[in-house]
């Protein structure tokens, strides 16, 4: 069975006609017809019903389709592998929640672009559970997640750094000098939330609800920046990743309330599918991300901001890596 016959079959199915498949492949229509006939003869089953000028895939054709798709994929991977010694190029599709896209990924992407300018990066925002599913389905090459560390079927997980959460209030808020704030203290406060389905929102609400606290006043936003501005304006309190409010805390525009964050232990993680072939472009990105993760962990250790991680450190620290961390993603990706 010739692979080109299977690729032609797949193209006919995708195009919906022999004529369109011929145009797409640059063949004469008679060549398409002869290849399909050769394949049908070898398999001893019809792959298409030909009714007038229309074609319809038969049951046998539908059963063959996933195998043809897999062979097409392997055909592409084989060509990529043979070109791997040449300049690294291609496209990487990466998923990330807003907080990590804004405050963790810029330095990684900047270094990667400096070293591999021929690779196109497509960054897709989303919720962690959505991106986990997209990696499992092959829609993303890799994803960065902010959630509790847990094994997920079919995924390789790399913990880059443990993240702290911060319950923030506007400067001068009465709870700033309250000492340890408890869920009951928030009963009559207005809480500003990220979108439903956000991991840390879900954990925070669960923490409150477990103590019998169901705040009546709450506002929902789809942007961390909008939440920060509204908290600074005195509209309420919010729980956010500390990396996203670091500057505002340092400038005194926000204050961090003393809060039991034990139920909110989250980490920045990187996930890829276990069965995914790692192209040279992907391997290079993973390696750079791991080095940045090592730098973040070192920074947390030096300043006593993080929790211990029970896994090996990867790679050496890059001298200027920390300076790149908050670079703006407005640079063309």
Automatic annotation (TrEMBL):
Alphabetized InterPro entries for the sequence: LysR_HTH_N (IPR000847), LysR_subst-bd (IPR005119), WH-like_DNA-bd_sf (IPR036388), WH_DNA-bd_sf (IPR036390)
Origin: domain of life: Bacteria
Domain HTH lysR-type per the UniProt entry, residue ranges: 1-58
Keyword Thylakoid among UniProt keywords: no
CDD domains according to UniProt: PBP2_LTTR_substrate
Record keywords: DNA-binding, Transcription, Transcription regulation
Cited PANTHER family: HTH-TYPE TRANSCRIPTIONAL REGULATOR, LYSR-FAMILY TRANSCRIPTIONAL REGULATOR
Entry's family note: Belongs to the LysR transcriptional regulatory family.
Name this protein carries in UniProt: HTH-type transcriptional regulator YwqM
Gene: ywqM
